[in-house]
Amino acid sequence: MKEMKEEINQRLLELCQPLKEGKVKDAMIYSLLAPGKRLRPMLFLTVLKSYQLDYRFYMDVACAIEMIHTYSLIHDDLPGMDNDDLRRGRKTCHKQFDEATAILAGDALLNLGVNVILQTTLNDSLKVQLTNLLYQASGVNGMIYGQQQDLYFENHQASLEELQDIHYHKTGDLISVSLQMAACIANKDDLKHWKQLGYDLGLAFQIQDDILDVTSTTEQLGKMVGSDIENHKSTYVTLLGIEASQKKVDELFEKCYERIYAMQINHGLILELLVKILKRVS
């Protein structure tokens, strides 16, 4: 896992090198190479590996996924959104540079992601399919819709159903599509399993964040804790409490394990990654 993460980081840097010099390029690299988990590209690559494919051949697709995720974080941290000062253990992009540069860096990563996929040596049909999946999941009916609802419910009380809808799109869509894209390459017959597994994992991941926001420290998380409370956001913890929220996380991971064992793959590879996610403290 560590080797794969290092390979992702190295390729992200290489893909940015041909870009025109300036603050926007600097901001893109600053945000991309911040010490993040690389969860989404690693899920994508690990699924491919579990089907005994050479994951390195698809490294640029994995990097495109990370570019889209990083763009969303840059914009999510902006003063007009969550107005955060800290991300991945360092200053947020707009704090390190300035707001205009951060907006442009996010825009540039959004555009670069699609170009990276289109410039691969994959066949044209697969390029279109992967790009369509990724941009549908991150667009106005996907991740952006989730962000919209998240902002709306800063000042409105959300029900459990409404909260789940936010998480389904803001977090789940990009995690699920990472698995779906891998399935499209490796085995389309398993697509439905990976799609639902991704949404279960995305919801579990977000509930974990809700728990960590009240049980962890800023140093551990690499971002400000207690921000959900300050922004008056409804979370699983505020609606259900910590114990019931953790029980929900455990139930969702059990569903993920069941779906993994329903497929003819190298179960150990993806299970290893899921266990690391389950036991995460940041």
UniProtKB/TrEMBL annotation:
Its cofactor is Mg(2+). Its EC number is 2.5.1.10. CDD domains: Trans_IPPS_HT (cd00685). One of its GO terms (biological process) is terpenoid biosynthetic process. The keyword Disulfide bond does not apply. Gene3D superfamilies: Farnesyl Diphosphate Synthase (1.10.600.10). It catalyses: isopentenyl diphosphate + (2E)-geranyl diphosphate = (2E,6E)-farnesyl diphosphate + diphosphate. InterPro entries: Isoprenoid_synthase_dom_sf (IPR008949), Polyprenyl_synt (IPR000092), Polyprenyl_synt_CS (IPR033749), Prenyl_diphosphate_synthase (IPR053378). GO terms for molecular function: (2E,6E)-farnesyl diphosphate synthase activity; metal ion binding. GO terms for cellular component: cytoplasm. Keywords: Isoprene biosynthesis, Magnesium, Metal-binding, Transferase. Belongs to the FPP/GGPP synthase family. This is Farnesyl diphosphate synthase.
